[in-house]
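Lesson 9: reading folded outputs for more than one chain in a single document. The general rule is that every protein is listed as its sequence immediately followed by its structure tokens, and records are never interleaved. Here is the first one.
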Amino acid sequence: MEKKKHWENIYQTKELTEVSWYEPVPRTSLDFLKQYNIGFGAKIIDIGGGDSFFVDHLLKLGYSDITVLDISQQAISKAKKRLGNDASKVNWIVSDITDFKPGCKYDFWHDRAAFHFLTQDHDINSYLLSAKEGLSEQGILAIGTFSESGPSKCSGIEIKQYSEASLKGQFSSGFEMVNSFTTDHKTPFETVQNFTFGVFKSKQTK
């Protein structure tokens, strides 16, 4: 409940452009759609999507099966208000990712900066279990976290930094890494945050 209260407060007291993750055009995330041939009928879930603009771009591109999950009702309410009538085209889930039990298999599991908030092993394991249960056989899972040269905190909360190697290791039990890289994100405050991205697919059992 403390986590939820923290995030509800953030979204109640800050404007969209007053948070470090503000990104009007999420280019890295959008590039994944082309690079991995994510079809317009694909089931997509955005973990910790909050009121980010990824969902706006997905709708504009013509994607029709979109789910946005966030711990904050306030964040989702803001996104719905911004989208207007288009909000009804999206499946919205208010949940802590560590409590999430996927009800279907997703073809593209997207997470830009939610996973790194999990610093306890049991929370990380809960996430990994949800991802294993929720990713389709040929699905793509894309995770973005702060890198080892990025911030150690976000919104006053300690995060877990990852290198490309440590992110690969974290997902090694059920996933195969197909790509990894680091990239800089420029915040609205003119600071730069370095991210590690990892792209995975399910390991095929033989």
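And here is the second record, again sequence then tokens.
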Amino acid sequence: MARDKFRIRFRKGGDLRLLSHHDLMRTFERMLRRAGLPFRSTEGFHPQPRMVFALSLSLGAVGLEEVVELELTEELPPETVLSRLAAEAPPGLDLLAIRRVAPNVTAQPCRAVYRLAIPPERRGSLSQRCTDLLAQPECWVDRAKPQPRRVNIRPFLRDLRAGPGALEIDLTVTSTGTARADEVLALLGVADLLDAGAVVERAVLELHDEAEAAGGFAPAPQRTFDS
């Protein structure tokens, strides 16, 4: 049984933004093994570390404050766990903070904010398009997976902000789903920026329990990574 459980905030950027979610899980598994941490494993023929990621990140996107929870079979100081993992982290994976959580607590996201830099020549009518989209009672998009269907993403749109240099997409996340940043970009007519090389950042990933009680993270060791 687990004797200790931790929640870690981390940044995924650089070349690691092209890493799939499954590859990210394997990366954390290698870090745990190389760090020599006594992690709790799943049961079955192919046991793996018991880890929970709050919300998977789209391939190619940068995550500025992502969340992973892991369980250990021994009690260790949070700073020890973080420093040993940080020593094994590859470039592009920056461990930011750690906190101990109760064994029965699981990271449940409730809000995500995405950001995309907008070229000056595309900013003209973007603010009005954001206003118009938020005024719509329904916003339907087509999804191909897990099966073809149409989804109304309007209930997930908290806010759209077209600032001086960037667009911010503020989304509600529920247990039944959320909207995707690329879907909103398509509705706003700027999805082509992704094909041109623009990179989406997930700037905020807010959890239910942290929204109720802020703070509690221990600072991570100072370390520099390629952006």
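What the second record shows: Helices lie at 21-35, 78-86, 126-134, 181-187, 192-195, 208-212.
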